[in-house]
UniProtKB/TrEMBL annotation:
<dbReference type="InterPro" id="IPR036453">
    <property type="entry name" value="GluRdtase_dimer_dom_sf"/>
</dbReference>
<dbReference type="GO" id="GO:0008883">
    <property type="term" value="F:glutamyl-tRNA reductase activity"/>
</dbReference>
<feature type="binding site">
    <location>
        <begin position="47"/>
        <end position="50"/>
    </location>
    <ligand>
        <name>substrate</name>
    </ligand>
</feature>
<keyword id="KW-0521">NADP</keyword>
<dbReference type="Pfam" id="PF01488">
    <property type="entry name" value="Shikimate_DH"/>
</dbReference>
<feature type="domain" description="Tetrapyrrole biosynthesis glutamyl-tRNA reductase dimerisation">
    <location>
        <begin position="321"/>
        <end position="416"/>
    </location>
</feature>
<feature type="domain" description="Glutamyl-tRNA reductase N-terminal">
    <location>
        <begin position="5"/>
        <end position="154"/>
    </location>
</feature>
<dbReference type="GO" id="GO:0019353">
    <property type="term" value="P:protoporphyrinogen IX biosynthetic process from glutamate"/>
</dbReference>
<dbReference type="Pfam" id="PF00745">
    <property type="entry name" value="GlutR_dimer"/>
</dbReference>
<keyword id="KW-0627">Porphyrin biosynthesis</keyword>
<feature type="binding site">
    <location>
        <begin position="187"/>
        <end position="192"/>
    </location>
    <ligand>
        <name>NADP(+)</name>
    </ligand>
</feature>
<dbReference type="InterPro" id="IPR006151">
    <property type="entry name" value="Shikm_DH/Glu-tRNA_Rdtase"/>
</dbReference>
<feature type="site" description="Important for activity">
    <location>
        <position position="97"/>
    </location>
</feature>
<dbReference type="Pfam" id="PF05201">
    <property type="entry name" value="GlutR_N"/>
</dbReference>
<feature type="region of interest" description="Disordered">
    <location>
        <begin position="420"/>
        <end position="444"/>
    </location>
</feature>
<keyword id="KW-0560">Oxidoreductase</keyword>
<dbReference type="InterPro" id="IPR000343">
    <property type="entry name" value="4pyrrol_synth_GluRdtase"/>
</dbReference>
């Protein structure tokens, strides 16, 4: 089961109230949820855009209530106030949802890669807290492996699909990298912050931020090892800049042709300028100056739209892999109930082989050690060959609607009821647990 509260279903003020802010809080949450009725395994994922509870449960309707109760109690919220924002995915849809999330297909920015690391971290925390078991240990490893494949074998994350990211990618393309370039960001609002974050994550080491309010520029610069300069020093900053990205709320041009023209004449290399403000910050006539590469938001949106189409193509390929991964996971789930039976059958067959060898040795005591090993090897080979087809058949029958009946007759045909009481009870419990998780549990 997957219980989700994310950007598609809940406003930010609700998501804030249900956010696990650090790894310690996540571990405490998973440990607390583990004690709730009907919850057999759990992993909690919490990011700025989503809080999701993945659980293996024994009763779907009961688990729904207890997951909602857990979230309300843990965050001190009224259950009725948060319940309308929680969506549930169950069975195969829950498995498919986890894989979509991990691959970045359910993200606000299609194909973003950060979510993969967040899923991996949550899974490791859950394992350490003892909140996972056989099902989630397999499922989350499958999802993480699939996401790695998606990002290495397709270009889902290689095309900029936000204006600020497109500006940075365009700068890298035009100037051949950002590491040694001096970057000037004008404006410290939301768009400016996203721009600085993208610059920093792409290797820019020399970032200067100019803002009308110096303290805000300083606060942003400190987050990303940059420098802040007051608005009065803008002209001096332009002299040193290789890249200028502007995103203020000004009603007039901040950078005019008379201001930039003398600076360009003195510069040895090109000046890359991106105007992502509406209204524009940079006089479009500046684009006609020698060695100036000027782009506005319309230019970038063309790039974004084209890149989004490329990501959608990759997402189509990945969706096919997710369908395959979901089917393979459920095929594995279906074998859980037969594992104890197969083990019991093999054990019984080996006991018969051992008894046969003991009889042979008693009747032919003069056998050499080598002859005994040869006979033992060949009798075991006969057993393995005889068991191969029945074992394959029972694995396939486990996936049918009448699986319980098939397992019952399998036990009867091979007379597996006569195992020692302790072994039988233990294996019966294991088989029933496997069948319960297959039929009733909701994976996510």
């Amino acid at each position: 089961m997957a219980a989700t509260v994310h950007y598609k279903t809940a406003p930010v003020e609700v998501r804030e109230r249900l956010s696990f802010t650090d790894e310690k809080m996540l571990a405490e949450g998973m440990a607390a949820l583990k004690e709730k009725k009907s919850i057999l395994e759990n992993v909690i994922l919490s990011t700025c855009n989503r809080t999701e509870v993945y659980a293996v449960v024994d009763q779907i309707h009961t688990a729904r209530y207890y997951i909602k109760e857990f979230l309300a109690e843990f965050f001190g919220q009224d259950l009725e106030s948060i319940a309308p924002y929680i969506r549930f995915h169950e069975n195969e849809e829950a498995v498919r949802h986890l894989m979509k999330v991990t691959c970045g297909l359910d993200s606000m920015v299609l194909g973003e890669t950060q979510i993969l690391g967040q899923v991996r971290t949550s899974f490791f925390i859950a394992q350490k807290a003892g909140a996972t078991g056989i099902i989630f240990n397999r499922l989350f490893k499958d999802a993480i492996t699939l996401a790695k494949k998606a990002h290495t074998r397709t270009e889902i994350g290689k095309h900029a699909v936000s204006v600020s990211y497109a500006a940075v990618e365009l700068g890298k393309k035009v100037l051949g990298g950002l590491q040694e370039k001096k970057v000037l960001v004008i404006g410290a609002g939301k768009m400016g912050e996203l721009t600085v974050e993208n610059l920093y994550s792409n290797g820019a080491k020399h970032i200067t931020i100019v803002n009308r309010t110096y303290e805000k520029a300083k606060e942003l610069a400190e987050k990303f090892s940059g420098k802040a300069r007051p608005a009065e020093e803008l002209a001096d900053c332009l002299t040193d800049a290789d890249i200028v990205i502007s995103s203020t709320g000004s009603e007039e041009y901040i950078l005019t042709k008379p201001m930039i023209e003398p600076i360009v004449k003195e510069k040895e290399g090109p000046l890359f300028m991106v105007d992502i403000a509406v209204p524009r910050d940079i006089d479009p006539e500046i684009g006609g100056l020698p060695s100036v590469h000027l782009y506005d938001i319309d230019d970038l949106e063309d790039v974004v739209n084209q890149n989004l189409e490329e990501r959608k193509k990759a997402a189509g390929i990945i969706s096919g892999w997710i369908d395959e991964g979901t089917e393979q996971f459920y095929q594995w789930i279906q074998t859980l109930g037969v594992v104890p039976l197969i083990a019991a059958l093999r054990e019984k067959a080996l006991k018969i082989q051992e008894q046969t060898m003991e009889s042979i040795v008693r009747k032919i005591p003069d056998l050499t050690e080598r002859e005994r090993k040869v006979i033992s090897k060949h009798t075991k080979s006969i057993i393995n060959q005889m068991l191969r087809d029945p074992i394959q058949q029972i694995k396939e029958l486990a996936g049918r609607p009448d699986a319980d009946q098939a397992l019952y007759y399998f036990r009867k045909i091979f007379n597996l009821e006569d195992m020692a009481p302790g072994e039988d009870d233990g294996e019966q419990r294991e088989m029933e647990a496997g069948r319960t998780k297959q039929k009733q549990a909701v994976q996510g």
